[in-house]
Amino acid sequence: MACPEEIAYRMGYISREELAAQGDVMKKNGYGKYLLQIAGEE
């Protein structure tokens, strides 16, 4: 399964803050939690 937000973040198209904002919108499901986890890695 591809995660477009993760790919965009890792390629430098969106910032960590933008990734975290996307994760925050969906924080009640696993996908949002995953985005927040990636945003908090570095």
Automatic annotation (TrEMBL):
UniProt-listed Enzyme Commission number(s): 2.7.7.24
Keyword Transferase in annotation: yes
Gene Ontology molecular function, alphabetical: glucose-1-phosphate thymidylyltransferase activity
UniProt keyword terms in alphabetical order: Nucleotidyltransferase, Transferase
Protein name: Glucose-1-phosphate thymidylyltransferase
